[in-house]
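Backbone shape codes:
***
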Amino acid sequence: MQAKSNYFLISFILSITILLPGCAAGILGVPTSYSDRRTTESQITDEKLEWQTVLKIQDIEGEFRVNFVSYNQVVLITGQSPNQEIINKIFSIVNNMENVKKVDNYMTVGPENTVKGIANDIAITSNVVSRVFAEDGKDQIQLSIFHLKVFTEERVAYLMGILNQQEADKAVSIAQSSRGVKKVVPLFEIDNSYKSNYENETQETEEIN
């Protein structure tokens, strides 16, 4: 239990500066509805779920490390446990929580990630985010970091967000080619009602003509 608490604290301190979307606003607990495709209610619920999940599993005995990321009420679980039994307990608790639509459980059996490993994962996340910023607007597919959430665990980049298919493909491509990334796991909600910059411009041109 002590190791679990220490590792959670380290993970939280290292990652709080890059929680997305809406970095500064997210840290202050203010929803970024002006730039987020989630509803304001969903944004608030996601923030609550990330804290509630941590509190709910505190009574589980054993030394393990776990992270929870919620996006549009879909909860991603990552971390390490000495056995599958603990993983199953965590999954069951989260899966039965109010307001949780779905659980993507990627927690693994094995040794806990090290402080160095956690720091490296944070650096990978930061690099992916920076590259999304840098690439936005360079081609016909506009991809805003405010529509995307990136989390890295043991060099595996998990991508969440509400994107159209072109945006999703671009996000995966950027993550796959980012330094240090071993694997990319896309967990997007695909909604093609959101059109790309190119599609919007084409439609506007056709309407004018």
